Batch of 2 targets.
Target 1
Amino acid sequence: MMKLVRLIGSLILLPLYWFSYFVPRNPKLWVFGSWFGKRYSDSSRYVYEYVNKHEKDIRAIWLTRDPNITKHLRSQGYEAYHVSSLKGYWYTCRAGAALFTVNITDINTLGASKLLKFQLWHGIPLKKVVYDDVYHLPEQHGSFIRQKLLKLKKLLLPFKDVYGKWDLVASTSPAVSTIFRSAFRLSEEYIPITGSPRGDIILDSSTSKPSIIQDILTDGEGGITKRIAYFPTHRIHTEELSRFINSLETSGVPEFLEDQQAVLYIKLHYYNLEQHNHAIRPKRIVLLQEHEVPDINYLLPWIDILITDYSSVFYDYLLLKRPIIFTPYDLSEYLTHDRELYGNYEQLTPGPKCGTWEEVLTELTKLFSGQDIFFQQRKAMLEQYHTYSDTQNSKRVTQKLRSLLK
């Protein structure tokens, strides 16, 4: 019944989509959105702020579903509207370009009939994404009739096609372009190597220290010599992740952190925050909340050692040329139930592989004593996956858009 109601609602809204096709576009008006319109973060945010600061002739508008984000941006002197508001729709109709982090629902889908769509994406994929992700792509599942109905729905209701057809997808290197050609079904000419705007934040020496870093363990409480971060990727089933994190307390890691005057920050993917049952107590192990660090790219420059599993965060962290430890404790299960990868995990990950926190402790001990045997492998991967290691990626994205909107 609910599906029928949604279908009727979509048919009622369809004229608004076709109306947007006839609205004149303004090449100097760009709209931005991120993470289904729910967050103010990631590459579209960085380009939005760059344009506001450096490209004064461009009218940059942020679209969101969160009124708190709208209020915050307006207080900063930026222009922002609710995605589904009349202005959100109208300015999407008028925009010459839109910049995304995830998919078309980052902005107002009804007004997006013929604007130039620039997909900035949210990282270099280790896991298969979009059309390569056979586990989650609806067209890959169900009966023959269901698959045909889904294709018919996309044809009749193009604003419901969340992946859509991108005009441009930003890449960081030829190796990444090869992945994106397959994932987005685009030819190379539509995948410019601009670098990821994430890199601008990670490498910018003026990036301010997040308040959570400043507030925890001040000098009066012993100080901090090293900051370690554990950033796992999201999962469908989180039981093993919870057990892995909860095993920290008896692993010897808390004592090691105390001896070394180090701290371990844990930040779960925001998809899994409410599903995790944690019992973290040691003061030098800090479970970060979403409101404390809504965007980890501002945190990465302050991290000395990264621990992760299948998250693409390690590709971004390569820019900093610092050690990475991998924890594929549930690799077989992950590959079976969550995602396939773009290659062999062992070959794609430039660091030691640990199945327990005791093994992580062994690798941390080596790193603290100066043994970093994966330095050259990380350097090689940095060169392979990042053509640029500067802070000009947002500028290159902007220049590419300008060249197409003349």
Note: Residues 16-201+391-404 form a domain with the Rossmann fold fold (CATH 3.40.50.11820).
Target 2
Amino acid sequence: MRTIFCLGLLLITSRSYALAADAKPETISPAGQTQVSLVDGKWHVNGQVTYPGTKAEGLLMNVRMVNSTFEDRRRPEFDVEANTAAFLAQIPSYAAHGVRAFTLCLQGGMPGYEGAVNSAFAPDGSLRQEYMDRIRRVIEACDRQGMVVILGCYYQRQSGVLKDENAVRAGLVNVVQWIRDNGLTNVVLETANEYPHRGFVHEVLRSPEGQAGLLRLAKQTWPQLLVSASGYGDGKLHAPVAEAGDFLLIHFNGTPVEEIPTRIAALRKYGKPIVCNEDDKTGRTAARAAELCVENGASWGLMLNQLNQYQPFIFQGADDDPVVYARLRELTIPSKPEPQRQATGMKFLPPDVDWDHPVYQTSFEEPADLEDWRLEGGLRMSVAGGNLVLESRPGSTKSEANANHLVCWLTQEVPADFLLEFSVRPENRQQGLNIVFFNTRGLHGESIFDPALAPRDGLFKQYHSGDLNGYHISYWAAGRGTANVRKNRGFHLVAEGTDLVTDGPAGDFQTVRLYKHDGTIRCTVDDALSVAYDDDGTTFGPVWTHAGWIGLRQMGHTVRCQYGHLKVWPLTSGK
């Protein structure tokens, strides 16, 4: 098995790359949490092949967003920060539709007019701090989403900023060292965009031999970094460039759709992963281009000139081109298996609970009992009559209550395997939906209270499709009839059972128990099985076997609900 890693240094003792003379030193960020690698010619992120179980397995579907960090020093009125912020806000939307990488560039791209001055390089090849800070902010945002960045160095319209070929080489070395020293483990390098372009003023950039030399220089500077250079829009590369890079970067702007398979086939002789990271087709034509790339084992990348490339730069997530992004999602998202449906209603008594040693218990007798709980969203939490009371602002319909969702987290970490028990009494059993989150952690194993995670205020997608992994069960959903188990991140429905709360005894408390042992999940209401799920670790990711946090969620239209006598026990099998 051949594995090539792009990994950050565990210990950084100094910074050896050159910053422009006016640059101010900054704190080096910790090593990245998203690590990209190549294993036997397939792309992997954090040790897992990309898009497992799909047609695009092992590929890197991407979008060119080189002007998300654009500046023009001749037009100071352009709001650089607002432009970058607009892109950052849409990264989750692109990611949700199958995009796993973005191409950025330290000299941007064509903004729709000539004469712009947009470069992270000073004339001597040193790096301009302000520009690099902006680039790093985008890279780190991608890192948090588990995404890769194809970072370009030189662009034909800006290469003249560099005073000579020595500056070009120095600039490349500075970029490689900057990536390494900042621990940006989700980055691969594109030394030049369309290297044969006549717009490059330096021979070392536009000649195949010179470009191959730059690729070798990058590898000598940091052998672990994955590097390549992109060719013209005809999908072709010169042999010296193809042989010097770790993967093959091609463009399909000028390539008719029907010729894509032939162009890909011609590159297979190099035995390296093929990544198209620029194709300006749109709509159905672009969707077909993506299909053909995937069918022929190549990654594909979209470039939307009129929206993302040319001013005014527009970033709308998947709404940029709904047809293309819908197809990307189809190619990269596994087809959903039917949720498990097991018989419900029978008695289920947990077999291996350590009843004598609860890890947490409370009776909610006084306000001090709330110190172990943290409320996100909603109106308030309080204690009354020996119960926890969670309330949202009143709303008579689901739509009116959308802004009132809440999650109340137990701040104590709970073992991976456990039994949770609590009593519950909704104010109105015919209106509302309640959920339990469990085994919940950050995507990279963080505490859910880690300040580096995105803020949460009760909005549902922040919990099921944000930066948290875990499970949740909707044990009560008035009007739906089912109790559901979902696996996160991704809101994947994996099991359906029976809602035993809606038609429960009016005015009475019911006892909910949630049992979790490895992949075995059982939820009961008054000892009757409500929903069951057996996670085999092959559906929507691995079994969540980590310790984590438990949260009680109410959708806004629940309005008010009481909980009592909450306890958590470990399992004897986990001792």
Note: DSSP finds eleven helices and 28 strands in the chain.
